[in-house]
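Format notes (please read before filing issues)

Several people have asked whether sequences and structure tokens are stored in separate files. They are not. Every record keeps both together, in the order shown below: the sequence lines, then the token lines. Line labels are part of the format and must not be stripped during preprocessing.
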Amino acid sequence: MGVLEGKIAFVTGGASGLGEAIARAYVTEGATVVIADIDATGGEALAAELGARFVALDVTQEAS
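Then the structure lines:
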């Protein structure tokens, strides 16, 4: 059992770079992860790989 078992993590910018590394670490530690990013292609691919969820999100747009 990981230290994040039973927790939900919402990772913005999670499709690549530091956000991707954080999403991977959280999944490894047992969290349910939601990856949010403007990069839908990369985010969906990573979510599928990790067994996470993906949400298209542009944090610069309030409506998003």
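For reference, the curators noted about this record: The longest helix spans residues 17-28. The mean pLDDT is 97.
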